[in-house]
Design brief:
Helix content is 77%, strand content 0%. The protein is mainly α and 110 residues long. The protein has one domain. The longest helix has 29 residues. The model has no long low-confidence stretch (mean pLDDT 92).
């Protein structure tokens, strides 16, 4: 059950980070309203707070989170940007998720 909670928390963390970065992208590259920076800032604050909720060492959490971020970013590419992931995108995401699982769920002596 702890593994499932960790994975769900990572997914929500990744979404918060992506939204926090995507909204300024819309302003800077797509000419959207500067007011998008306000929800972007809140989303990035949420991202930082969610990362702090993990009970293990911060460096390990950040390293493992990167794997989930890659997976969620590829889903974002498909769902929001409307670009179907390539076979290499899927393979890379699977490798990243495997790395996350090894880092977060490997047995530890302490």
């Amino acid at each position: 059950m702890a593994e499932f909670k960790t994975l769900i928390l990572f997914i929500f963390t990744a979404i918060a980070e992506i939204v926090g970065c995507y909204l300024p992208y819309l302003w800077l590259r797509e000419g959207k309203s500067i007011w998008l920076l306000i929800p972007a800032a809140f989303s990035l604050m949420l991202f930082a707070w969610l990362l702090s909720l993990h009970p293990t060492a911060a460096g390990r959490v950040y390293a493992a989170y990167g794997g989930v971020y890659i997976f969620v970013a590829i889903l974002w590419l498909w769902g929001v940007d409307g670009i179907r992931p390539s076979t290499w995108d899927i393979i890379g995401s699977a490798v990243a998720l495997a790395g996350m699982a090894i880092i977060m769920f490997a047995p530890r002596s302490s």
